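**User:** My hope is that you can spare some time for a protein that puzzles me. I have put the entry right below:
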Amino acid sequence: MTDDTDSRRRADLQAVMTAHAAFYQAFIDRNFGAMTAAWAARLPVACIHPGWGALVGHEAVMTSWRAILANPNAPAVTVDLVDLAVLGDIARVIAYERINDAVLIATNLLAREDGAWKLIHHQSGPTPPPTEYASPVPPHRLN
């Protein structure tokens, strides 16, 4: 790998981690404006919340987040980043979400839109608590 390619790869990884953290920070802060900003505006988007069917399209996804974030009884979430991969203009992030006593596994896809990394897909569902991580990279607590 050339120095330029390696530098670009590191910059992409950092930018994806920052965008991913902004998504969860919007969730934690119950900030609908920040949540909207975390998602792609023009690229196709989809979301599958735990126990929900697939939501496809920007309007359906944002309507779901508006309801979740407006719920005063919505639980707090902490996130452990497990694995991150950048493949050109697409990135895949796997993370454990801890909500109350539940552990969920999430897959988040991000894509470059107008030069910025934005969510295009989020899916989260129950999983047993991790005993060890599959990735050789240790988990990274986002919050």
